[in-house]
UniProtKB/TrEMBL annotation:
InterPro entries registered for this protein in UniProt: Homeodomain-like_sf (IPR009057), HTH-type_TetR-like_transc_reg (IPR050109), HTH_TetR (IPR001647)
PROSITE patterns linked: HTH_TETR_2 (PS50977)
Superkingdom to which the source organism belongs: Bacteria
Keywords tagged on the record: DNA-binding, Transcription, Transcription regulation
GO molecular function ontology, one term from the record: DNA-binding transcription factor activity
Domain HTH tetR-type residue range list: 34-92
Signal peptide: none
DNA bind region: 55-74
PANTHER family according to UniProt: HTH-TYPE TRANSCRIPTIONAL REGULATOR BETI, HTH-TYPE TRANSCRIPTIONAL REGULATOR RUTR
Protein known as: AcrR family transcriptional regulator
Pfam families to which the protein is assigned, alphabetical: TetR_N (PF00440)
Length: 214
């Protein structure tokens, strides 16, 4: 009798498992998990911008988290750097969009873009630092960032349309000037110059360097 009951019980369990779908762990991170990952990535960007050699323990401390919490979300440094790279690219894409490169004169558009990029703050620290952990040159240009810059420069050098960028300057020279001046502006901010002055000097220098009106 006991054997029969056991057999019936096993049969019932097997049948139940087949008929009733069992809950599976969700592959989608919870809101809390996403929030924690964002805290970690933000803390990592700030910390690594100041010190590219900062340890995971220092990043966890900057985010007011335990190291075990950090490791629950990122197994190692490489995995965290991958997430940082994606976040930096997202911020660059948003800044490029905010600059509205297609609006108004080309020189004004590049000026707006430089100021939008300047406000990326620690993200610039990551790409301009020695042994920088983030390299925008490795990003595919699916967001149109480099294409947008090149198109804007070309538009500005076309006298038939606007002609507000010196046509005698090679486009690559204009692009290099843009990044070099942005680096100088970021360095000035890092050394304590106030943002308003940095923005003014950046805009004035860029316009004088590549503009047609002097």
């Amino acid at each position: 009798m006991n054997v029969a009951k056991s057999y019936i019980g096993v049969l019932f369990c097997v049948s139940y498992d087949r008929l009733v779908p069992q809950s599976q762990p969700s592959a989608v991170p919870s809101t809390t998990a996403r929030r924690t990952r964002r805290v970690i990535v933000d803390a990592a960007i700030e910390t690594l911008a100041a010190d590219p050699a900062a340890t995971l323990a220092e990043i966890a401390e900057a985010g007011d988290l335990s190291r075990s919490t950090l490791h629950r979300h990122f197994a190692d440094r490489d995995e965290l750097l991958t997430a940082i790279d994606a976040e930096c690219r997202r911020r660059f894409t948003a800044a490029t969009s905010a600059a509205r490169l297609g609006d108004g004169g080309a020189l004004n558009a590049l000026d707006r873009l430089a100021l939008e990029y300047l406000d990326l703050g620690p993200v610039l620290g990551l790409i301009f630092a020695d042994n920088a952990p983030i390299d925008p040159d490795t990003w595919e240009d699916s967001d149109g960032r480099e294409q947008g810059l090149s198109t804007t420069i070309e538009r500005g050098q076309n006298s038939a349309t606007e002609g507000d960028i010196d046509p005698e300057l090679p486009p690559d020279w204009v692009l290099t000037t843009f990044w070099v001046l942005l680096f100088g502006a970021w360095l000035s901010l890092k050394n304590g110059m106030n943002r308003r002055d940095v923005a003014t000097y950046l805009s004035r220098t860029f316009r004088k360097a590549v503009g047609t009106a002097h």
